[in-house]
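Purpose: get a first structural picture of the assembly so the mutagenesis plan has something to point at.
Setup: two entries, given in the order below. No constraints added.
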Amino acid sequence: MKVAQELTKEEMVDLYRKMQLIRVFEEQAGSQYMRGKIRGFLHLYIGEEAIAAGAISALGPDDYVITHYRDHGHALARGMDPKLAMAELFGRATGSSKGKGGSMHLFDASINFMGGYAIVGGQLPIATGLALAEQYKGTNNVVLCFLGDGALNEGEFHEAMNIAAIWHLPVIFFCENNLYGMGSPVGDVFAVKEIYRMAEVYEMPGKRIDGMDVLAVREAMTEVVDWVRSGNGPYFVEGMCYRFRGHSMADPSEYRHKDDEEYWKTKDPITALRRKLIGDQIVAESDLNDIDLEVEELINEAVQFADESPEPDLSTLYDDILG
Amino acid sequence: MAEITYREALTHGLKEAMDTDDRVFIMGEDIGAYGGAYAVTKGFLEHYGPKRIMDTPIAESGFTGAGVGAAMAGLRPVVELMTINFSLLALDQLVNHAAKIRYMSAGQFTVPLLVRTVTGGGAGLAATHSQNFENWYASVPGMTVAVPSTPYDALGLLRESFKHEDPVLLAEHALLYRLKGEVPDEWYTVPFGQADVKRRGSDVTLVAYSRMVHVALDAAQLLAARGVEAEVIDLRSLRPLDMETIYESVKKTGRVAVVEEAWRTGGFSAELASQVQEECFDYLDGPVARVNGEDVPQPYAINLERASIPDAQKVVDTLASVIGV
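Result (C-alpha cells, whole complex):
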C-alpha cells in the first residue's frame, strides 16, 4: 500500500469514512432491492470504493464531477446526502431528482455533481463542454469525468478525447477498468492490451494506477489534478479495479471465475486501508469501529427516510420538462 | 431593415446575440475560416475571434455534447449542425441527454442550447443529404423545434431561442436562404407555439411549415383561379404546436390538407390529422388530406427528385382526389 506521506491523519480517516459510507450504502441498496423497495436496474459500486473516494478527494469545491450509471459511489464521495440518494433509489418525492431519475441518474447541483449518464459514453462529450465553459470563463476549475472500460469502444469516447486534446481542455478522464463490460472480458473486446495507452494517439498523457488502493489513487490524482489545473490540458487515468457484485442486481456473475473473485476480495480497499491505519498506529481500531457504527447509523437513517417519504405526487408528471 | 434574405436574417440575429451576451458562442464544422456551409456565419471569425467562433472537428456527437455541457455550466452555446442528416450522428446527445437533463435532475440543471441545422431536399444532393427529420425531433419531450419559412420568422424565432432556457432545434430550409422578405427595424420576436395565418380563405385549410408554406401558397393561387379560397397556416414551430389556430380554421372551412416535405409514413401530417379529427370531427366535410414527400430515398435525377417532393399541383390533385375540392 502507498505511503502517501503528504496526507494528514484526518484526511486518511476521511477516505476510510467515505469508502465505508459507500460500501454500507450499497449493501443496504442491494438488500432494499431484494425487498422490492428499489426497482429497475441497480448497479452496485462495491469493491470500487477506492476510486471514487480517492479521486474525488483530490478536487476542490468548484470543480465538476460527471459520471456513468454506476454512480452512487461518486455522488456520495462528492458529498451528496445519503438520504437524498436513497430516497431517489426508492423513487420518492424527497429524492435528489424528486423520483424522476432513479439509480442511474443522480444529480446534485449544490456540489457540482453533474449527473450519472446511462448511455455508455454519453457523459464524455458533456464533460468536454463543462471544461470548455470553465476555460471560456477563465477559471481554473477542472472536470473529473468517470467512465467504465466499456465506454472506450464508443465513438463518443474518441470524439471527446480528440476535442479535449485539440482544445487543451481542463478535463480528467478516469477510466474505472473493472475488467468486464457488463459480462464481456476486456481482453475479448479491445484490440489494445493496455487500454490507458489509447490516450497516446491523442497525444494525451495517461497512466495506469492501482484502483484498489485508495492512497495510491489519492496520490496519483493530486498530481494529475494539479497538472490539469495548471493549464496543461487533459489527462487520462486508468484505475484497475474489480466489482465484487454482478454488473447489476440482475446479474449472478456466472461468467467470472470464483478464484478471480476470491483473489480480488483479498484486495478489498476498505480492509486494506483499515489494516494500514491500525498497523501503522495512525488510528486506534476502536476509532475505526466508531466510524463504522456512525456510518451504519447514517445509512439506516437514510433508508428510514426514504421508506417514510411519500411517492411523487401525480401532478408532478409534467414538471421540469421545460422551464 | 426593409427587405433582407432568410440568410441575412439569421446572420443578423446571431450577431445581435453575440453582441449583447458574452455567454453566447458558436461552434460547428467549418463555421469559422470557411464561413459556414451556408455562409450564415461568414466574417464572424474575423470579427469575434476564435474563442467565440469555434471550428470543430467532424465529430457531431462530440461537439453537440460539448454544447450540452457548456450550456449546463452557464453558457449559451450555439451549435451548427451542417445538415439535419448529420444530426443523426448526434442523436445520443440531443435525444438522450439535452432533452432529458432538466427532467432527470428535477430542474437542478438546464440545457439552454441552440442547435441550428439545415433541413430539406430539392438541391440535387440525393438520398443522404435531402432528408427532413424535424418531425422526429418534435416527438421528443424536452425539445423545442422551430421551422421558419420566411426571413421575418427566421429572425423572430432565432431571437426567441436565445430567451429560452432549454434546447431548441432551429431547422432552416436549404432552399430558403436566398428568399427575401420584409423585416422591420423595430425589435420583435416570434413566440414558439404561435402559428401564422398566411392567407385568409373560407373553403379549405392548408396547413404547412418551412418551405412547404410557399408550396401551399402557390396551391392557393391555383385554387383561387378555380374560385376556391384556401386558408394557409404556417405552423412556425412543431413543438410546441399551435393546434388552436388550425381548429379555428377547420371549423370555418370544414376541409383540411396538411402539406409536409417529410415522408408520409410517420410524418408530422399524421399527428396533425389525428388531432384534427379528434377535435373537429363534426365540422369536417371530408377526410383530412395529407400531401407528403414520397416514401422513397430522395433520388438524384432532377425529374425523379421533383416527383418525390410535394408541389402546388400535387396539393391541388390530392385535394381533388381525397376531399373532392
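Chain B touches chain A at residues 25, 51, 56-57, 59, 61-75, 77, 92-93, 96-97, 101-110, 141-142, 144, 164-166 (CB under 8 Å).
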